[in-house]
Amino acid sequence: MNNQKLKIKKKVKKHIPKDWLCELRILYRLSMETLNDVKRTGLVNLVIITTMAAILTIFATFFRTAISISSFAHELGNVLEISVYLKSGSDVSAVKNRIKEFEFVEGVKIIPKEVSWDNLKREMDLPDVENPLPDTLHVKVDKPENITTVFNQVKELSSVEDMSYAQDLAKRIQMLNHVVNTITVFVVIIMAILTITIINNTIQLVIQSRKDEIEIMRLMGVSNWYIRFPLIMQGAFYGFSGSLIALIPLNFVQNGLSNVHQFFMVPAPMYAQNLVIITMFLMGTLFGAGGSFLCIKKHLQV
């Protein structure tokens, strides 16, 4: 019986013409309700928005710094090469082509032993003896974390006599990337907890102050979403306003990191600032609205 009623309701709704002007009026009314709720909160708004701005500034600073550190790590990784010393009489071109087939290898450069010997004689005063140096291959790997894998693969080749690379530097780059990513995730979790807690407490106060008004609206048959929407929008407003204020300190962070990139002659990551700003606004607004929604479910039975 209930299912049949629902089907009839759906069919009736489909044939009812939509009054867009009425829907706009409802949206306007909901927006005014949100504004009134913000006004009722009074000076507490300033405390909430300032606190939100501080939390979002910390998040944005860590996120923007993490992008720059990843950029530095990538640049350092690009200069990391494996030096492969071949046995005498080895077919250098064949070995080069074999190594290029390995996964994670970006390029292989041949350094003939004659070139190495000439360079060494220019740097040092050496006696006129037969060239003792081997042919060398410089193997470039796509990422620092893959250098050990490629090293072990190349080591298995029969033509290879010896190998070397900056192992300590590669490990430190990997560790730095791991630490930065872990800290960023940790900051996001803390930010979410603090934001939701602050918004939750604020909306709870608003609900308590409007308890009688909300009860009257419920008795009048007002839609649940009509009651919920202004409260959710109020939380989103706090997150958005906090993000706007956080742009000021974030701009100083951006300028400082740009100077660091220029000093070390490392190109700054493209669109990093825009990515951080968009992420900050999204997270601030969503966490603000989410905190309100959780509070409504907990303290308001609508």
Strand content: 5-15%
Task: Quickly count the domains.
Answer: 2
Element order, helices and strands? HHHEHEHEHEHHHH
Helix content: over 70%
Largest sheet: 4 strands, antiparallel
Mean pLDDT rating? 79
Structural class: alpha+beta
Describe the structure.
The chain is an alpha+beta fold and 302 residues long. 73% of the residues lie in helices and 8% in strands. Strands 2-3-1-4 form a 4-stranded antiparallel beta sheet. The chain starts with a helix and ends with a helix.
Quickly list its features.
302 residues, alpha+beta, Alpha-Beta Plaits, 4-stranded antiparallel β-sheet, 10 helices, elongated
Summarize this, please?
By secondary structure, the chain is α+β, with helices and mostly antiparallel strands. The protein has ten helices and four strands; from the N terminus they run H-H-H-E-H-E-H-E-H-E-H-H-H-H.
What secondary-structure arrangement, pairings included, does this model have?
Layout: H1 2-15, H2 20-41, H3 44-79, E1 81-86, H4 92-100, E2 105-111, H5 113-123, E3 136-141, H6 147-155, E4 160-164, H7 167-209, H8 211-219, H9 224-263, H10 272-299
Antiparallel strand pairs: 1-3, 1-4, 2-3
Helix pairs in contact: 2-9, 3-7, 3-9, 3-10, 7-9, 7-10, 9-10
